[in-house]
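Cast an eye over this sequence plus tokens and explain the fold to me:
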Amino acid sequence: MLEFPYAPAGFPESVKGKTELHEYMKNFPEHFEVEFTDLRFHETTDPALVIAEFASRGTALATGRPYNQRYISLVETRDGRISRYVDYWNPQVAAESLRGAEVDGVFSSIRDLA
């Protein structure tokens, strides 16, 4: 399960399974060009839990505006597989980068947040 604690209105708070994840994320490369950087892992006492912090530097393709985001992810595993992934990111960053753009797909309403 992939969870989004800060999901804006109209967006799913979680997706389950490969099919839902693919449907949710498939349009991202059509709207943003990004490079992920500054990966840091934080030590935990639970070997089944990984906490990662990272950034993205990129551009919203429809507007040319920057898409520079910070993320924190909590990843839980069970039997060697990801059982839960919690993705903390700021939807306002995406909304500002897409403000005024006409885009289709999952990101079509996020531009209205700015």
Notes: Helices lie at 17-25, 28-31, 91-98.
